[in-house]
Amino acid sequence: MSIRSPIAAALTLSLAALSGPTVAQAPQTPAPYTVISGEGRRPLASRVFTGQEMFAVEDLARVFNLSVKEDTIAGGLTITVRGQSILLSPNQEIASVAGRLISLPAPPAREGRAWFVPVDFVSRALAPVAGTRIELRKPSRLILVGDIRMPRVAGRIEPLGALARLTFDVAPSTRYAVAQEGNRLVLRFEADALDASLPTTAVPDLITAVRPEGAAAIAIELGAQFASFRASDLPGDRGGVRIIIEVVAKTTDPATAPPATPPAEAPPLLDIVPPGTLRTIVLDPGHGGGDEGARGPSGTSEKSVTLAVTSRLKAALEGRLGVRVILTRDGDSAVGLDERAAVANNNKADLFISLHANASVRPSVQGAEVFYLSLEEYGDEAQRAANAPHATLPVFGGGARDIEVVPWSMAQAGHIERSGTFARTLEAALRARVTMSPRAIMQAPFRVLVGANMPAILLEMGFMTNPAQEQQLGSDAYQNEIVQSIVDAVIQFRDRRGPAAEAPAGGTR
Amino acid sequence: MTRRTILSIGAFVLTAAALWWLLFVMVPRWYRGDPPPSAAAGSTASGEGAQRKITATLFYISEDGMSLVPVQREVAFAEPAVEQARQIVAAQIALPGPPLASAIPEGTTLRALFLSERGDAFVDLSGEVTARHTGGALDELFTVYAIVNSLTVTLPAITRVQILIDGKEVDTLAGHVDLRNPLSKNLTWVTSDKPS
Question: ipTM of this predicted complex?
């Protein structure tokens, strides 16, 4: 398989463009294109003329069975395909294809008696009259002819602590199978060939390499820590499919090691519901910078735990739900409480999750807690904001727009009900995985929540002041449990709300 | 034209302000009689002169760390109401013996306390209340509501409490509880099971 990275192709072209007129005049020979048809693969050489990559008409004629006739009087070239004509003129970027005019990125070039045409000639002039499918894939330097099943496969790899996730975006959608063969996984496609760009990075001890295998398969070489894998898929963009393979590492603690479940019994990591109702989630890692937050007896600081969990959560939400995830801070920086809510408001987030770790004067206290805003403390102002009057404003160009007038400082007032719904959903999801505090769900006048113009909650993941919980909060295993709980809750919340259930938001969204 | 409009709006605003002041500040004061009865309300005087004491309700963190528990304590009687409020906050800040745990970090002092005509108390605490705080959200609620509830429960004339730190208004004590507005009595965090 001849796969060249698009960067290399772009580099070749840009080098050619940059290398000055004297060099550019001399023809250059980049790596050949590969023509793939039912008869097999054939190379098709190209050359660069003044920055434009071109094929020799003679070569095209041989590969595609064209008849070529030069009109010596008019100085043009007539190419005949299945009884239809393509007319080329020297120094003209316009060509006539079966009587219709098309444009080319450059006029044909000539060298002695040989004619050269830009590579786009294949897709713009040849394909319309060929009578069979001809597909030019410039980034992968391929030309597909006829009924060739050759899906594009773009792979990426994400380390997520105790597991590594491989994501393959496949277009068009193609049937596939994943099987373990010795110390590797093989992902086979029902296709004639693959147009694949595979990840080059590895996850030490888990995935050592991802490489093409035969004509239409991908081999994933597994490391020593491999314990099990699960594969799932969901519809991708534009009729494609997204295949997700999670490779799980052996756990060090045999007591809590998950059984090496076959893929069929694995919990559904993905939901097949089409995305759409939940577009943007803002995650807020509590504290940061000079504000360390709570501190455990062994010295773990809340600000680092919240940042670590948030980073994991971002990857999980983006990978599994395909939503946009924005962090209020992605490093150890001080961010004001109003600023955090403002990040969510300015990005029109659909959900705001603030992550914290708790502390108590009583070291024995443990468990996770979910908070959402209580309005009592804000008095009449909050009641007014919650029952915001509608105002109708005229709009430029006629018509009117119905808006609600809510002060930004009280934006959360209009979302309390759905914040409560999400808080209860999250509390249930957490309870399935981690220890909960005796007061697992509470309402409080929390400053970071009150200005958020969308459902918003604050999660206290556990107590830093409890030595056992401090250990947990710093561990991959516990952080992953928290992340999984939140992902579960977000999926449930999204599926419950649906477009029809979307309440009108406060402010002037 | 515009000048007249501005003048008439100004006059209207002034009239409205005067009316509001008369209705909500002066009338209640006449009806209540001056000074406000806050010093005696909700408390029982137990003696005359310098030995007089009132019973204050103070709040401490429960043994399971999950709630505030109310504790009745004798506090020196003082006049006027603002002086009584200072006594109560000072008692609330002082470290209790075990098994009680104070919701207010050790070393915190009361810098000042003011009362407004409307029954709002402004409690100015020293920076230790923030610097030495555990940083827990629940603990922060306990710190805030130990102060708010001890004042509002013991002295019903005080309806709301705003906490200041080192003389300034603050957003929060430790990053969670919104302190920008005065807070009313809230017994959500209080459990009735009293320790001995």
Answer: 0.72
